[in-house]
Amino acid sequence: MSGNGFAAVPAEVDVVVVGAGFSGLYMLYRLRELGFSAVAFDEAADVGGTWYWNRYPGARCDIPTTDYAYSFDPQLEQDWTWSEKYATQPEILAYLRHVAERYDLRRDIRFGTRITAAAWDENAGRWRLRTSQGDEVSCRYYVMACGCLSLPKGPDIEGAGRYRGEVYLTAKWPHDRVDFTGKRVAVVGTGSSGIQCIPLIAGQAAALTVFQRTPNFSTPAHNGAPPPDRLARLAADREGYREAARWSRGGVPAEVTDVSGVTAPEELRRQRFEAAWQAGELFAILGVFSDQGFNPVSNGFVAEMIREKIRATVRDPDTAEALCPKDYPFGTKRPCLDTSYFETFNLPHVRLVDLRQTPIVTVTETGIDTAEESLQFDAIVFATGFDAMTGPLVSVDVTGTDGVTLAGKWERGPASYLGLMTTGFPNFFMITGPQSPSVLSNMLVSIEQHVDWIADCLQRLRTEGFERIEPTPLAEAGWVQHNQDCADITLYQRANSWYMGANVPGKPRVFLPYIGGVDAYRRACDEVAGLGLFGFRLDGPAGSRCNDGVIRRVQPDVAILLDLMAALPTIETMSAADARAFLEAIDATRPPGPEVGEIADGVLPGPAGDLAYRLYRPPSAGPHPLITYFHGGGWVLGSQDSDDPFCRDLCLRTGAVVVSVNYRHAPEDRFPAAVDDAFAAVQWTAANAGRLGGIPGQVSVAGWSAGGNLAAVTCQLARDAGGPDIAGQLLLNPVTDCDLGRSSYSRNGEGYVLTTALMRWFWDYYADEADRTAPIASPLRGTLAGLPPAVVVTAEFDPLCDEGQAYAEALTAAGVPVREIRARGHVHTSLVMADAIISGAPVRAEMAEALSHWWPAPVRG
Ligand code: N01
Fold it and tell me: pTM of the full predicted structure?
């Protein structure tokens, strides 16, 4: 027997699991089922994990319990009935005990035991672990199922250790009943734990003082019996319901709306908000609008409607205002569900201390001194949160290959592959680790997915003759980048949240969970497995194998665009007229671009008649630099309407007057009609710069795609004609050559909106074969010396990528100053979609910054 009173710790096992909560128990179950020898360790005296420790009054789940439960065994589901929509901590703990007993799991768990150190032994190909009881265990695989919110942060408040009264930490609540009757109680912290316990403590205490540093968004849980509609859905098709959860965004089957908060009328906005408020579910209030997670205006509507509710509930206006969150977008700090939280502040013996107005100076022996007064308490409850996600993992002394520790490797933030493994730590798995959906999802769905993936992986390694698995540096770097890309398009990084590590002093500020969605994440994991454990290096008796690469390279919002586009008919199967009508219909549904100072439509004289143009003026007083812009569309499609959002964006970012010129299109007017029009337009804008509000001599050209081709060509024509002077050329994904055999055509010619077939369709409409090699059709074949400075932007997944880069290189070789911008993860169309593709914004910002160097006078945006 070992010191904890259970069976001796085996010296060698296949797998060690750390943690006996939801994830550890299921991991153990799966390992045993597959015939692996396994042992689990937990510091607690029994199973439960989070639900073992967090016994504070009011502790309950905030995902409906019907969904916050295992789904792996239909019989288990049949045999267990939840009594409430959101079950209490005792009920959830009872469920976990039932699970442990039902599958006889306790015999392989060593309680009261922590793993204190783990070191990888490369020669043996095993982990060597040390326990707090002094035992040593060697295992082939080491699984950390230790939870994301299991390392309490503790009160980092001056004098906290000095207090002589009763002290409680919500995350380490005593097992014996705590009675606050007749006592003066302080609660520090208003996150989910504080918000759950405050109403119940108020129900007992003689006086309750709540110390709030940051107000939280909380909505009523409307707890009660489990919702009958959900029970009915489960009864009708249990497996269908669970499968829908597995492929949902958050791990709970929920409506995915396409109603944008920005464009919805006020009445619809309120109607949707009220419905979500009444539902009393996190994913309902987080999904009122399709764009509330990334559009500040849309988010602001939800936030303000919640503030209205707080103001309507809390009677004292000053207290109400202090309880209203105002300095971070809704959802970016974990929102809470409550039962009578705001109502509690109407009770005469409950008081709020707003630490932003009156900070805590120190905890004293008898209470808390704020900047204004000295308060005495019989008990203080710290609901101050956790060192989330990374804390529990790095709190163990884990040493991987070459003596590198996990804490050392993650000093500047976690790096993982799929949140499951990390390079340099072979055979080391994490369940719901950083860079997996975990805390942004229904934990149970994420836990089951992770455990199943790991179990399948271990089984496969055994079957295929491998004993060592480690992600490659390339795969890991790609996943870290993808995580960051996903976070970058949201508002989440604006808050000082534990998602960002911002609650722990000194912790690196990095967005920790994967925000791409449970469905997208599962798809990525499945693909990795399907591609022979893509991005992993495998070694063992069967030899070595590595199918290396990056699983997600397309920007996340571009990936959504591609999914939508995949369902649309292909343009190259249509006539030019039908294609135009089709695209105009799509354009009509797009939200408008940003407001500029002024927009004016006009006509300018072209060689074969008037050409329509649209002028965009910045809000500032002019005169401004002037850009003559040519839209994209393969010389066949498009107009000043199609590129309107991009032109607005360009105008605002550059502070330039933008004149977007419509030129004649093929097939009605074939090559070189568009070139003639474009050059005439540049001559006209240069001659009329002053009248248009531009600065004479500071006229540039810009264009996207075929428009980029025309911009490049007009620069060559202007140089050869001796004018007009062009200050610079912005070429965005330009067509520079008629050769469709470049490597980017084979890499990107299918599946990224602009296809090789479509490009051929454009060229065929535009110009005869014999004309295509002329420099005014393929500017890459022209003389490039003496051209104006260029900004050349290419997109990674564009068939035109190589010819754009070739043009930049050729310009540089010809002595032209070039700033080249390579847009990672973008496709041909995504950068101009200023109204829809958020990940294009940094590229457009870089573009605008590059343009500002062309203009000697300061640009006023
Ligand atoms: O922790 P928190 P939590 N001085 O970090 C304040 C899950 N959970 O335990 O926001 C003064 O959210 C801190 O202030 P600020 C859920 O995912 C789920 O409540 O940092 N105040 C904040 O108000 C949740 O998000 C359930 O300015 C200090 C509070 O303490 C996560 O666990 C229930 C302070 C901490 O809030 C963590 O929740 C409970 C200081 N020095 C928890 N330090 C369910 O319902 C911190 N604070 C399933």
Answer: 0.96
